[in-house]
Amino acid sequence: MSMNLSQLYYFRKLAELQHYTKAAKELYITQPALSDAIKSLEKELGVPLFQRKGRNVCLTKYGKEFAVYVNDALRELDKGIAVMKEYTGSLSGRINIGGIYTITGDYLPALLRSYHAEYGDAVKFVVSQGVTLELIEDLKNDKYDVVFSAFKDNEPTLRFFPVVAHQLVACVKADHPLAERKSIRMDDLRKCGFEIYTYRTDIPIGAEVAAVTDEYGIKTHQRFDDEITLCGMVSNERDDSVGLLTYTIGMKPFTDLVIIPIDDRDVPVDFHRMYMVYKKDEFKNRALESFIDLAKEFVPPEGTLPTCKVVRENAE
């Protein structure tokens, strides 16, 4: 008996579930039929692909190697089938999106509303929240189709397209000596004598802020993950502390704090850029392609994203 396509799909499912009864149920075949198909495949290849492990099975060393080729081949085949089906159908399917909270709270909802207005509701979006480094890894591992995050160096397989940016600001209590300032220079922060709190340096935004504070010789306490915890610290401190952070929706609940922009002679207004990130050479169905194309041209209605500046430049 010659190897056939069904056997490869059966092999992939059994390798995934490692249980004959469960795999047969998901394949809508009987367990004996699945067992016979796998035995026939092993006979054709001349090597054992599975071995018993209690009530389950696991891949042998041959099975593990064979699985790499089978998964790649079936993935490409499934893509080809999807492309052919799209020629006769309208946009549909599901797009898995990951984003940092500063994107998922305002920019992304506006983008999705624009997409639905343009293409209808047949395409479903599943949105998850995370931090940049985790989002990038999950994108590479196919958990997401596209993510919105900060930039990460040394990712040659990914396309980073800038979409919005956040301004670098200081935040202080309303009775702080700096509260009346309309803007502030970095040298003023260096000379002010107040405790300055900012992000920890092992996250992208923290590294960007540290580069600026190091340039100006500003000493800071670098231990915060996001704007919410940072503002909370400044809001609850008894002394005249200063927060150095980016202006995002995370600051909105802290109405007792005053936001002071950092002078644009020292740092650009689009200080911290957010990117739409996707795989360069990966197959994209029409729904995902249309979403990416729309995001590249999307300009939110004026006034809807007060904490963001739209960025339109070449991808990185």
From TrEMBL:
Organism: Slackia heliotrinireducens (strain ATCC 29202 / DSM 20476 / NCTC 11029 / RHS 1) (Peptococcus heliotrinreducens)
Keyword Lyase on entry: no
GO molecular function, a single term: DNA-binding transcription factor activity
Record family assignment: Belongs to the LysR transcriptional regulatory family.
Transmembrane listed as a keyword: no
Name of the protein in question: Transcriptional regulator
Domain HTH lysR-type span(s) in chain numbering: 3-60
Keyword terms of this UniProt record: DNA-binding, Transcription, Transcription regulation
Domain of life (superkingdom): Bacteria
PANTHER family xrefs: HTH-TYPE TRANSCRIPTIONAL REGULATOR CYNR, TRANSCRIPTIONAL DUAL REGULATOR HCAR-RELATED
Cellular-component GO terms for this entry: protein-DNA complex
